[in-house]
Each structure stands twice: as structure tokens, then as C-alpha cells.
Amino acid sequence: MMPITMCKEGERVTIRKITGNDKVRQHLSELGFVVDHDVTVITKVGQNVIVQVKDSRVAVDASMANRIMV
Fold first, then answer.
1. pLDDT of 26
2. Would you state the pLDDT for residue 47?
């Protein structure tokens, strides 16, 4: 497992684990980051990422992105 920030642009990955406290995990879940679902890394700027989640694109800063393990 690795954080989603380590993925390359265009890479499709499956979320394996979301770390953090309950509030953080709930927030990411509401954005569509759910364990065992596929997401695609659209672009990266530093460690910030834009990810295709279901039918939406979501920008996630580095602190949140590092909690999404793939």
C-alpha cells in the first residue's frame, strides 16, 4: 500500500484504506473516497492531486491525499 500522492497521472487505482480520525474519514467518504472503489489520478501539482471519483473530479490537498492508501 502507498498514499495516492505516490501514483502517476492517469493511473487508475483501488482505494485500500483511509487513515485519520472519524471526522477526516467521514469527510473523504462524503467526497466519494470509499474503500474498494476505483479512482483515477487526473493531475498532480506537488503533492496535491485532482482525482476522478465516480462521475466527479475532486481536488485534494497533500494532507488529505496522504491519508488515502491505494
1. 96
2. 86
Among 64, 35, 37, 49, CA closest to 7: 49
Domain that holds residue 60: 4-69
pLDDT tens sequence across 12-48 = 999 999 999 999 999 999 999 999 999 999 999 988 9
Burial of 37 (0-12, 13-18, 19+ CB in 10 A): exposed
Cell numbers at residue 7, please? 501514483
**CATH code of 64's domain:** 2.30.30.90
Instruction: Give the pTM.
Output: 0.91
Q: How many independent structural domains does the chain possess?
A: 1
First-to-last alpha carbon distance for the chain, in angstroms, is: 5
Beta-carbon contacts of 58 under 8 Å, excluding residues fewer than 6 positions away, are 31, 32, 33, 50, 51
